[in-house]
Amino acid sequence: MFVSDAEIDCADSQSNLDIIDRLDGVEDGYVKLLLSTGVVVYGMPLGIIYNEDNNGWDTIKRIVVKPYHSPHSQDYGLEDILSFELIDEYDIPNAEKKPQILSDKEINSKVQVKYIGPDDPLSLHTNKIYEARVLKKGWFGIVDETNEEYAYPPELFEVIDCPITL
Fold first, then answer.
1. Among 14, 61, 97, 140, which is most exposed with the fewest C-beta within 10 angstroms?
2. Contact at 8 Å (CB) between 69 and 55?
3. Could you give the CA distance from residue 36 to residue 143 in angstroms, rounded to a whole number?
4. Which domains does the chain have, with CATH numbers?
């Protein structure tokens, strides 16, 4: 069952906890986040960070989450998270647990991959299919939205077709 800010406001009107405070209270557990973009992220909340706005006047509170499929953490603000659900590790879909890593013998093969990481309009779009070149250690060389080729880790993609050796 997802928990939204509206439900938190009703349940905890005295303690004034928002969704980020609630996520920060999750200890050694996993959550399923529903983001405002419609993307679902499975991960473990690591803690709250505070930043100043561009003018240095206001403090912006964000929650740091380590996605299950990635070694890199990501931070989200109140505007990014619609709701969350506490889950057990066995409830995380297999696609999130086992990124498909191609062997080194397929280096320079071309494959089609679907980006499953967080949407970034300057580089990659979630659920978009890209043509990729297989690099060492299973990484992918992808010409992203900047029209330049960059190396990306395999855990951010699903391979959707077999490699074709060049």
1. 14
2. no
3. 26
4. 3-92 (2.30.30), 104-159 (2.30.30)
